[in-house]
Amino acid sequence: MSSGPAVTLTWGVGVSMGIYASGGVSGGHLNPAVSVAMAVLRRLPWTKVPVYMAAQYIGSFWASCVTYFLYYDALEKFDGGDRQMFGDHGTAGIWATYPQSYISVWTGLGDQIFSTSLLLLCVLAIMDPHNMTPHKGLMPITVGMLITALALAFGYNCGCAMNPARDLSPRIFTALAGWGLEPFSLRGYNWFWVNIVGPHIGAVVGALMYQAFIGFHWPHPDSPDVPVGLDEAMEPLVGEVTEQTENSHEEFEKKSELLIHRVVTTV
């Protein structure tokens, strides 16, 4: 099995590649908690949240299936076909995250709230056009490094999921693929919800903290004494998208007029 640091580094690189692949289409939303937090900040329409979440959970489940079949032979050799949660031949932790035996539910919940709040606080700092924004092409790498750092710092207690889709979908898969109900029944069904509820709370808390202490306090471009509000804080990004949209519409209209002219001329 790979070592912890190698896993967290690979996790960070994987997040970076996912953002590179989907950033231009959806903004790189790979985490339901992030999507909800962005909707709370009015940076993502609430109507898109269910669609994003469905894609995130389905994508995570599919990734679990691919991992299982790619390493099926290795699993068979390791546990002889007897899928176990823990112990010398435990493999459930390859998919979902589980707590140390001495970690209480409330400690785990606090762990998830705190780590995910840091995630969102830092992500918003990276994205904020008024802050020390890195080059657009480096943003995915920066976020991936952030994921690796948080996983290394907070992974010991309970795996540092920070992403409900990254934990729930693989947990469902393991329950269906031979590990039985134990991925959910662990501690009397009083653990699996921690990595769903905690990240959602933490994401919203972290997003609101960034806005309360930093995002709302940038000087207004027209009046340095007036802080920038939520809408103004995102104006450079919104303006860029609006300008691109307007240019696309103008280009489409010009091409349409040219096509009509050619058709009329031909007739």
UniProtKB/TrEMBL annotation:
Its main location: membrane. This is Aquaporin-3. Belongs to the MIP/aquaporin (TC 1.A.8) family. It comes from the Eukaryota. Homotetramer; each monomer provides an independent glycerol/water pore. Could also exist in other oligomeric states. It is found in: Cell membrane. GO terms for cellular component: basolateral plasma membrane. It is a multi-pass membrane protein. Gene3D superfamilies: Glycerol uptake facilitator protein (1.20.1080.10). Aquaglyceroporins form homotetrameric transmembrane channels, with each monomer independently mediating glycerol and water transport across the plasma membrane along their osmotic gradient. Could also be permeable to urea. Also participates in cell permeability to H2O2 and H2O2-mediated signaling. In skin, transports glycerol to the epidermis and stratum corneum, where it maintains hydration, elasticity, and supports lipid biosynthesis for barrier repair. In kidney, contributes to the reabsorption of water, helping the body maintain proper fluid balance. It comes from Pomacea canaliculata. GO terms for molecular function: glycerol channel activity; water channel activity. The keyword Protein biosynthesis does not apply. Keywords: Cell membrane, Glycoprotein, Membrane, Repeat, Transmembrane, Transmembrane helix, Transport.
